[in-house]
Amino acid sequence: MVMHMNLDERKKKILTTIVENYIESAEPVASKTIAEKYEREFSSATIRNEMKQLEEIGLLEQPHISAGRVPSTKGYRYYVDNLMKENILTMVDIDYINNNIVSYGSIEATLENAANVISKVLNLPAVLHIENKDVIENVKILKVSDKILLIILMSKSGTVKDVIIKITDTVPEDKIDELNKLLNQNLKGTPLESLPNVLSSAINNQLNKFSDILSALAVSLNYEIKEDSPNNVKTDIKSLLDIPEFSNTDKMKELLNILSTKEIINEVMEKIKEDDVSIVIGSEHHDVLLKDYSIISLDMDNLNVNTKLAVLGPKRTDYAKAIATLKYVNNKLKNIFSKNEEDVEGGSQERR
Description:
By secondary structure, this protein is of the alpha+beta class. It has helices spanning 9-25, 31-37, 44-56, 73-83, 91-100, 107-122, 173-187, 195-204, 211-227, 237-240, 249-260, 262-270, 319-351, and strands at 60-61, 70-71, 126-132, 136-145, 148-155, 160-166, 231-234, 277-281, 293-302, 305-314. A hairpin with a 4-residue loop joins strand 5 (148-155) and strand 6. The chain is elongated.
């Protein structure tokens, strides 16, 4: 959402100063602050006049009669689209990211850890959305007792799902071996989310004699898939309390309510465009509960998992740092996943 508005250089400088000062201080910016920075360029009267004009065209707001100005949603949008400079992360942040984002075996675990790191670097809630494109690699059935079976499903990315099935009649070992073989033949390469439907289809075809076991497995998997939330929220409540906007108990309750409401978070994450970085500010959100918040997100596509990472904060968010952090973490993850893929391919070639 790029805002097209013709501002002269003086207005651009004043708006930039107000946005960046307000992001840093959380205090309305007075003309005196701008005069101290541009004392050789603009007079105080000129600055006050320019601020008034920026307010009239909707880029600034005046919270109180005697107070300075703060950016409006339109003001933030103009700044983000036209004035914001690229941020270079500090060595402290870079070292923290490099030391804490490592491979955790599965892609999902690695991504969850990355979201947690992002939350700590920015002191904001981070939301991880994983659209699983993973597929079944191997199936193993273990007999726990005469009427209880443990079915282990291993995915290509290393994710493991285990399901306990209670059966009415004892199944001989040779039948379990036969079912194990047939499941591997029928399920290998099947997307995890499609398993219940594929199992139902398999029952109607060659696996009808195992219908009781497979029906129970399909029901259990279907329940798990529906219950699994695609979004994982990472946040540190103590860090949030240091943000002026959330020092107010009511605002903190509002934020926690937003983060815990699946419908709101799901809708936000679903609307993230499949491109580089997207930013939605304040009233640009359709949900009125988000009118005081901004969401900065990055759409990624790593191996078998389509991933969206986002941070949610007040409109007074440091957008440049948030974008730089998301991009740096994205590159870090790409390096980790590509190395893992090379290691897997190298191991396969050695075995050959």
